[in-house]
Design a protein that fits this description.
Elements lengths: L1 H28 L4 H8 L12 H10 L6 H13 L13 H36 L4 H15 L2 H15 L15 H27 L2 H8 L4 H12 L1 H25 L5 H10 L3 H29 L8
Helix pairs in contact: 1-13, 5-6, 5-8, 5-11, 6-8, 7-8, 7-11, 8-11, 9-10, 11-12, 11-13, 12-13
Amino acid sequence: MGKYIAIRVLAAVPVLIGVLLIVFVLLRLIPGDPVSLLLESRGESSIFTSRIPLEAVEQLRDSYHLNDPIPVQFALYARDVVVGDFGRSFQTNQQVGDLIKELFPETLKLTMAGMGVALLVGLVSGIVSAIRHHTWVDYSGQVVAVFGVSVPDFFFGLVLIYIFAVNLRWLPALGQDRPEGMIMPAITLGVSAAAIIARMTRSSMLDVMSRDFVRTARAKGLRESAVVIRHALKNSLIPVITIVGLQFGSLLTGAIVVEVVFTRQGLGFELVEAVQRRNYPVVQALVMLASLVYVAVNIIVDVLYTYIDPRVRLQT
């Protein structure tokens, strides 16, 4: 197992390097000069208004290595990343690592809350649909699942705000420091993942419940709850866990939209502002963090297979 994990970790290194290179290049292809945007955000002039000496602007660009060729910029940045230095924010001059430590807990809290909603709603809905398949309960669950997959997060979040915050006034539209302020963002983030998990759970459960060992368990006189939970559900979890792992990475990136809709100060909200301001170090570090989490979750999911189904053997 240790050898397998080591191989997977080593295989992830080229993936992360590729992600870093692609993001690095694409950022520099986006129109807009980060130094001009920085000076404008400070209330100073840009190079287009010439209210400050051009030499000062060029000196600022040199300090960020923006006048160097892109290959040189990437080499310098990669050298710093290897030693754990992700640079400083152009806007605040704060270390990007410190910024991540400050904002990551909020984004992780929202992601975990959204995953909790997705697991609770998705697993329960999928199991019930499988048990009551070809009934109105099953059909209703499938309709809701299609709705959950089809509706964009930002639209669903705005609908929740309009209904529960503006009209009914049950929940706050904003309020990151209040526990009830997490309810609507978590539901908004988790609804699409819940729909996907529900459909996969239903499909996997129906396949397992038609097998001989489930019929044997029923013939032995076991309670239906024991047949469903101990036999059918346990043996149908592998494809479900795969989907859950993938959805966790999706929820982490989906938090960007949800944090903007509900004005929550997290990595997603910071990423949107960094892209708008061409804050290269922040964007590069946050994309790398999302990629690292996504890769780590996939490795964990693969390792969990052996604990859920002993028939699975990892090939190293």
